[in-house]
Amino acid sequence: MLKLYGSTTSPFVRRIRILLADKAHEYINMQIFEGPDRQVLRELNPTLKIPMLDDGGQIIFDSRVIFRYLTEKFALGSLSWAQENQLTLIDSVNDALVHKLLTQRSQVEADPQKLIFRLQQERIETVLQALEAQLTSGQFGDWGYPEICLYSMLDWALFRELHSLQAYPALRAFHAKHNNKAEVQATDPRE
Length: 191
Ligand SMILES: N[C@@H](CCC(=O)N[C@@H](CS)C(=O)NCC(=O)O)C(=O)O
Prior knowledge:
By secondary structure, the protein is α+β, with helices and mostly antiparallel strands. Helix content is 55%, strand content 9%. The chain has 8 helices and 4 strands, in the order βαβαββαααααα. It is globular. The relative contact order is 0.14. The structure holds glutathione (GSH).
């Protein structure tokens, strides 16, 4: 049985949970920052990040590689280069937002004059603008993997109140459109 290690709040985990919604698998919810779960992670995955997949002892790190593994296993069909670039856009804003959350949780003041914070903030804005433009010009499809990743990132940014989507009507409309899907509801981090 496929085992997916993750946490209910992680947007990188949620995309894989939604992808696996109709496939037999076991989901293992972890507390990754301390305690026994961190020890499990240390033994299996030195990056200490989730998601992580275990398929009968074959361990796979990183959602992007997990997606590639599942694509081969279930013959899901691969992504175009344009879709790969969409994933890179989504991953980069997602990483910058994770950085922002960890900064807040570390009680570090995110001084916009400092290079590290200025670059992250600029990236969040340039990527959200690019995603807004792509949605507006119809470059995203219905509900394939790039759309699942986009939804998971947006919903997490809203849930954690990390960045307002006020300036991005197409992103807000996209979020609202997919909000009531069963697999989206079943993986809501607010539950
Ligand atoms: N590139 C990785 C990113 C995964 C990631 O950043 N996961 C976060 C949770 S949302 C994590 O495990 N963070 C732990 C840490 O930064 O120590 C992927 O796509 O799987």
